[in-house]
Queue: 2 jobs
Job 1
Amino acid sequence: MTNAQLTLIQIDNYGPWTVTPNPRREMDLQTMQSRLFADLAQFIGGRGGYVFFTRFDNMVAITNGLDRTDHDLLQETIGNRYPVTISLGTGTDPSPIVALESATAGLQEAGSAQDGDRREVRFGEYLAEEQRTPEDVQIAHFDVNDATGKYTDQLNEFDSFIQIEQGYATLMRYLREEHGGLSFFVGGDNIISICPGMTEADYRESISHVEATAGVELKVGVGIDKTPHGAGMEAKHALETCRHDGTVVELGTHQDDVEVATD
Amino acid sequence: MTNAQLTLIQIDNYGPWTVTPNPRREMDLQTMQSRLFADLAQFIGGRGGYVFFTRFDNMVAITNGLDRTDHDLLQETIGNRYPVTISLGTGTDPSPIVALESATAGLQEAGSAQDGDRREVRFGEYLAEEQRTPEDVQIAHFDVNDATGKYTDQLNEFDSFIQIEQGYATLMRYLREEHGGLSFFVGGDNIISICPGMTEADYRESISHVEATAGVELKVGVGIDKTPHGAGMEAKHALETCRHDGTVVELGTHQDDVEVATD
Amino acid sequence: MTNAQLTLIQIDNYGPWTVTPNPRREMDLQTMQSRLFADLAQFIGGRGGYVFFTRFDNMVAITNGLDRTDHDLLQETIGNRYPVTISLGTGTDPSPIVALESATAGLQEAGSAQDGDRREVRFGEYLAEEQRTPEDVQIAHFDVNDATGKYTDQLNEFDSFIQIEQGYATLMRYLREEHGGLSFFVGGDNIISICPGMTEADYRESISHVEATAGVELKVGVGIDKTPHGAGMEAKHALETCRHDGTVVELGTHQDDVEVATD
Amino acid sequence: MTNAQLTLIQIDNYGPWTVTPNPRREMDLQTMQSRLFADLAQFIGGRGGYVFFTRFDNMVAITNGLDRTDHDLLQETIGNRYPVTISLGTGTDPSPIVALESATAGLQEAGSAQDGDRREVRFGEYLAEEQRTPEDVQIAHFDVNDATGKYTDQLNEFDSFIQIEQGYATLMRYLREEHGGLSFFVGGDNIISICPGMTEADYRESISHVEATAGVELKVGVGIDKTPHGAGMEAKHALETCRHDGTVVELGTHQDDVEVATD
């Protein structure tokens, strides 16, 4: 059984800030947002977690292995170096969506995202070291079969993007609704999902659904580990196996032994 | 009539690089990608253009005002500072999608995006200064009505994101298919579109389509100018007028006088 | 005759900010400072200028080719993306130190660097396009003879650093006092100087002085151009000639024809 | 007694890279160097260490609290995101200079800093957790008395810089020669030193020496802790006490109790 620790990172009062006193240059906003995300990726990634840019003003991270002290430091270091501050809500649950609901609710109870007085909120609980297990995190890494050959090298870039985007939009809804999983586009033709305990059959159905609905053919590697980075790396290696062997779903070796075998 | 200069920025051989010799840490890839995008945003934005992250390995920019020398420098400075290089294709046309098709085709003819020997390609034409007019660029800046009140402060962040995402997926297809316009999610509840000469009625229809199809209510400010930055700023101010006056479509003052009045 | 345009970039009220409300983490200050400098280097460098980190809270740039609009944009984009703002003073003169004196005086007259109300000051004059000539900028690029063999590969890093530092401290004072030139350590064993019209003999004397005083052996390549980047590149190529030919002073080809020949 | 863990960070074969195949744009080199330093500052600083830019191609860090795994990750993440790689040597000793000598020697033995085949070297020992004590790190934070009033607001920026620089050059040599301490200019009028167990009298003598030799008046706050960050923060607070009380040397409270009282 998985046990995800999800962190919601919300820029405080960001919308109003972007137009105060006048609308700011869009490319400056894009620069600031993407660098803030990059810094979060380094901070969280260097401690074994994963963060996704989501909407940039609200970013979702899976942070198994990061404790309260790490979150304190993250909030402080961003506040020291950016013109904006961040609030952090954390939740834990076997279901990723439930964990995120808990993380989000904590911030919402503290006030609106556009409340100018609500700054640097901290909310939530963290997995204690003794609660953690080697099956806490299940990461699925999807990509599109031959995206370069079928799209990038054939269509104009926007039409390639539409194909990838529609595949992503379909998968994100399916995994959310059917499994409570959280899927994020991470660039190229790649989607990474934070999943609950799902089986090989579950993944095959997901891929069939996307192909039937959006006409986009996916494959997936899956990893399970104590940390997001560990699970994600296992998923990447499993996806490499798909590429070499022409298979559609590959479960990392860890999962074969521990999770799926006993399912 | 608009006359967009579109630039496709493609990281050379990126997919293979990310797994050579072994899959690289995902958070390092995210960091590198988003910082590369931030640097492009500063470079292009500081010269009056706009760039969008699109798929990160392929990014789309509107670059009216940037000439061949600027593109030379961009390619050189990225090559000096990143572990990857970029190829650049440029095209111009009254229709944004046609301009991008031209830009993309140039790179495709030079070889595959995953051809390890195809590096730092340059292709395309640039608008000569004497060709440029004050109506070359039309930018539409959409946002979601009361996204904070309806989504961010109510739903968990992933479900908020799904709403915004479905609105975006619907709009991007509609504007592409009906008008040849290119729409990009830029964070929060914001979408920026590179549009051909569209009228107020065209925008009203687009918004109605998104509401009918995805259930997401948008409003839009539109700007026209010689440069993307100029048009984008006019669009932002027009969107502020929507917010204050409760209107759904606002055309910037420039457009009132010059473009739409004569349509 | 040279005609340098110098820009002083001063972070507003920085000292007090670093300890308000409490001392901030040193590594956050270092990160913020060095990234601010990097952004200035990209902005100014992409427009043909050079900037040096100097004291980080005060940075010196040579900005021939950047006009008032460029400086406006620089101030705006930094203000949009950093937790601090910058003031900019500009001066022009055949003598670099006189140009910088003028740039500095403008900011000093507007108030103290630690006056919390003095923010985003702009002061100064810019070289008009018609005033500019191909001999406006003289850049000298020094390095230490065989620094790797004599220091880096032999001494502990701090003792290597002391050697380089003492060479730099000696050169910076000599060129300042004798010629009104401005010298900046740029990393490794490299020093870049903004010089007035100096001759080969002047450079030989400078190098002799440093060797006699600090025991550090330098060589130098010199370039002259309309822009700092052009002059700096010529200087780098000249320094490569020193390396290959074992010479101590090399003047770029441009200088041979135009400046030195007529001296 | 202190017990410093020093890490030397050396960019592999950097000099040759900067001129291959031709000299690279200086502002790109400056950007890359300073961003690399910023990333090191975040990585090391977020784990309780301090890093100094030194010569940029060789950087010195005090890394008490970072183990082998942290150094592995640092080397990997830089290699993933930069066009250059780094080698890391580590040493530990009560004397900072001896620790650095050990760290440097390890890299030197592996080959020259300009050996193209010597890449991503790792050398050294790390303090085991059970060896670590609350007095391992002594950090001194110096600044110049009224630098803004006497220099920044009075002189042109280069002459201000010369004053600060000469003060630094004098202090760095004195502490190195007399105590084996390592001093680094960190911007503005600030110098941070990694010191062995030094007393209040030692600091008074250092300050007197700099005033007598270079005419620059310093004051200093000193902190002692298990980690560089802890000691550095204590030093910053002690320096604030100097500022408020007009004193010249202040030892942090920790030191009063533990180190100096027993000296």
Note: Chain A touches chain C at residues 24-25, 28-29, 31-32, 35, 76-77, 80-83 (CB under 8 Å).
Job 2
Amino acid sequence: MTVSYVHCIQPLRVSSKTHLCFSGGRCREDRRKSSCLVFASASKSDVNLILQSKVEVLLDSVKWDDKGLAVAIAQNVDTGAILMQGFTNRDALATTISSRKATFYSRSRSTLWTKGETSKNFINVHDIFLDCDRDSIIYLGKPDGPTCHTGSETCYYTSIFDHLKDQEVEGNRLALTTLYSLESTISQRKAELAAPENGKPSWTKRLLLDDNLLCSKIREEADELCRTLEENEDKSRTASEMADVLYHAIVLLTLKNVKAEEVLEVLRQRFSKSGIEEKRSRKPKK
Amino acid sequence: MTVSYVHCIQPLRVSSKTHLCFSGGRCREDRRKSSCLVFASASKSDVNLILQSKVEVLLDSVKWDDKGLAVAIAQNVDTGAILMQGFTNRDALATTISSRKATFYSRSRSTLWTKGETSKNFINVHDIFLDCDRDSIIYLGKPDGPTCHTGSETCYYTSIFDHLKDQEVEGNRLALTTLYSLESTISQRKAELAAPENGKPSWTKRLLLDDNLLCSKIREEADELCRTLEENEDKSRTASEMADVLYHAIVLLTLKNVKAEEVLEVLRQRFSKSGIEEKRSRKPKK
């Protein structure tokens, strides 16, 4: 179904950084962070009316189920980790649009709830996506802290295949995608360095123990990546050299206790600013 | 709820690369790919019985709703992209566990369906995760092709904030996390190079147009990343330099038409093999 804007009486531009305010009853006004739009040509109440109308049209276009619900999945905008899944209804989605805090409808308590209202671990929503059927929604956002009520980073830490492998399951394992799974493995290797070991240490451990070796490998792999362009090598060589750069760089990040997520946050913040603004805001290099 | 293994009569180890076969009626036997486990101490039928029993216990532990359903989210194991969301029931989950192809229950057709059974764009499941409430499931897998029936890579390509910003929405925009959003922006800059432009080109365009500049920047940024370790600079400097390495490296990947996803696939394949096996399988360097 295509959203129609017949209700809209004039073009409207909303900065992605501006919090929408409309008289939906549940708009949480955070005077520090949110600001209502003011246009030279329209009064605040006109603008609110237009926005409210656009939001209503949008809410009408969602294919709510027989209970008035749709699935809402909260996803970390930087890492892609699925944080949690709940259900949303018309009011919960309207609240999320206006407050930019992931808000759900609790089926057990028959009430709206904003993730973080008790724990303060809000999920700050940067964008919201509907699927092709308009009955499933992604809240793409940045969590203030662990999402799960257990204190886990995400609610998905029970692997079915782990359970089928072992009679006794040793601890939990988050649902991690490739980069974060590699990061987690390298962190484990770092933690194991304290324990005495027989035999030759793995390559990762050797890198973790020898800054000179690690840095020479990072410089070498970056050079090899460049040579795939300079010497017109094939695509598979480029992918392979970039994998080498990433792996060795993550070993360095692990040594420095920097998470890949922190790096992605830096990238996101840079690319949401103009180049000039961004350069000005950087700390001077030594 | 904790999974109990009281039904299991002996310890059982299943390699993550081994496809489980059990007599669930819906086990799709792919003789090329799947292999049933054979243990010296147990006959094939014993093993099948044990596995079947473990799977049944696991299926019992899922908190199915009043219609016998749970939410199932398919996620790309390399990029973290949420591919689609459907519902699963006991049979659909059992089929996914045994076939390793993401399988759902269609509420409209009241039948099981394996994503890809018509299009051949299967989602090859590497792991399955339950959430803390055991009523939401991630199928973490690798898609064979676009997941959406529209031909889109994922089903989530309608941004609510885009719709609220503009009266006319220009095309669709996938729900991309930071790295892929950056990659997409750089790809756009590359596509824009063909069009004549007034004024000074952006930094990204200058890099795209000048291999020497790009390669000197990649080498320089890799060196600066290393120096944050060698000169014991603070964590924020490491994150910032790594962001520089990533950004410049993605410009190079874009020039070579290599997707970040391909790099992550290389990393995943390396880390699922032992170091020695992996090194042997690499193409020799020039």
Note: Chain A has a mean pLDDT of 84.
